Amino acid sequence: MDSPDTPLRLTDRKRAAILQAAIAEFRSDGYEATSMDRIAARAGVSKRTVYNHFVSKEALFTAILDGLMQTSEAGFDKPYRADEPLRLQLLALLDAKMRLLHEPEFQDLARVAIAAGALSPDLARTIVEQLGKREAGVAVWVRDAAADGRIETGDPLFAALQLESLIKGFAFWPQIAMGQPPLSETEQRRVLEGAVDLFLARYAA
Q: Would you place residue 113 in the very low, low, confident or very high pLDDT band (cuts 50, 70, 90)?
């Protein structure tokens, strides 16, 4: 006889299959060309099952982005510590961000998201909100360091966005928008250290 949690496990397996099928479809054919019918067929489930898990293609796509970032950003929520050097903390915090930006799957989905967002302002807003939630770790760190008097800023969110931009200007936008190759390990470290040093030169108390 099946255990009481067997249906839950089956549901989880179907959800995982849908997500993997959707990732493959979005990466290969883009957002507009991907349909819930094709996702269902690839996942081996009915279209009704897909909609039972995700109310729309937009919801499915944002769930994929969210799940990818949860997996890739292990350690990205490192809290501020008053007893540790600022530079070492920031380098550790942003190292996870750099790893995420170099995930091939994330890069492919980012390109899909940008192309889809250009055609759908509503989807673009949803994606920006989703990404903003995942990038809150840096803003929280800056806010806490400012509250402790070690960072001088009246606008922690603005300062955090500046720091993010210093990294993405080298390790995201050239690769996503201009087809530049990923940064080497040496280049990644140079970008991280340069961004952190510039940030601290401006904001360290």
A: confident
Statement to judge: residues 180 and 85 lie in one domain: yes
Position 153 pLDDT exceeds 70: yes
- Does the pLDDT value for residue 71 go beyond 70? no
Place of tokens 């210093």: 166
**Is this prediction's pTM over 0.70?**
yes
Residue of 9, 43, 50, 6 whose CA lies nearest to 25: 43
Quickly list H helices, the chain. 6-33, 36-43, 47-53, 57-72, 86-101, 104-119, 121-134, 136-147, 156-171, 173-178, 185-203
Structure tokens at 54: 């995700």
CATH no. for residue 20?
Answer: 1.10.10.60
- Domain, as residue range, for 186: 65-203
What is the rounded CA–CA span in Å between residue 97 and residue 119? 27
Sequence-separated (6 or more) residues with CB below 8 Å from residue 178: none
Q: How far apart are CA 21 and CA 39, in angstroms?
A: 6
Q: Which of 88, 200, 86, 79 is closest to 140 using CA atoms? A: 79
